[in-house]
């Protein structure tokens, strides 16, 4: 019996040794807007390479959804929003520290590769039978509304009314908007430039500068950040030449 007990203890020790060392890195939790998915995955990889003792954990969703989760007590170190509104309200309520704009971008119109509505310019949006936009609570929805209001002011009320009649879906975030076009469930949609660049399933059409908007992307450290020093380090990293160059490659305009 003593032999069997000793053998079991030895086997247990060997198994623990084979399982590898426990990952002792600091887990840095970052909430980021859906439109930042591709760029922040690359940013996280670069940051981890520069800081081997830190592991970045990313969570993506519509900015309004992430804001709600933070208000309901979600533990997070940083929050990167697709607009100033949702982050500023968290700042005003004491959840987040001072925000900092780290990148900006404009909007573009996307259509399916097959382009069944034969849309060639932004003014052709009225040719679409199925238009998908972000809803009124999402940053992309708010930016889109501003673009359409500017265009309607120049093109006439009929442009705005036709577009409104053709809206078939209002989505929670820009990736859901893009997906509708990629799947051929919409003839046209408005998205951020980076979301168009990273998709092989859409055609991109420009929006005239007179009607377009510049979307600012701010970030802030949580006032209750479990890993405040590491969060501050990532915030500083976002302003680095390496991070800004990466954001530019993804279609953002550098904030520096």
Structural description of this entry:
It is a single chain. By secondary structure, the protein is α/β, with parallel strands linked by helices. Helix content is 43%, strand content 23%. It has helices spanning 2-18, 37-50, 63-71, 84-92, 139-155, 157-166, 174-182, 193-197, 228-237, 241-249; strands spanning 26-33, 54-61, 78-80, 100-112, 131-134, 167-171, 188-192, 202-205, 214-221, 253-254. Strands 1, 2, 3, 4, 5, 6, 7, 8, 9 and 10 form a ten-stranded mixed beta sheet that branches. β1 (26-33), α2 and β2 (54-61) form a beta-alpha-beta unit. The relative contact order is 0.20. Residues 1-6 and 8-19 have low confidence and may be disordered.
Keywords for this entry:
256 residues, alpha/beta, D-Maltodextrin-Binding Protein, domain 2, 2 domains
Compose a concise summary of this entry:
The protein is an alpha/beta fold and 256 residues long. The protein has helices at 2-18, 37-50, 63-71, 84-92, 139-155, 157-166, 174-182, 193-197, 228-237, 241-249; strands at 26-33, 54-61, 78-80, 100-112, 131-134, 167-171, 188-192, 202-205, 214-221, 253-254. Residues 1-6 and 8-19 have low confidence and may be disordered.
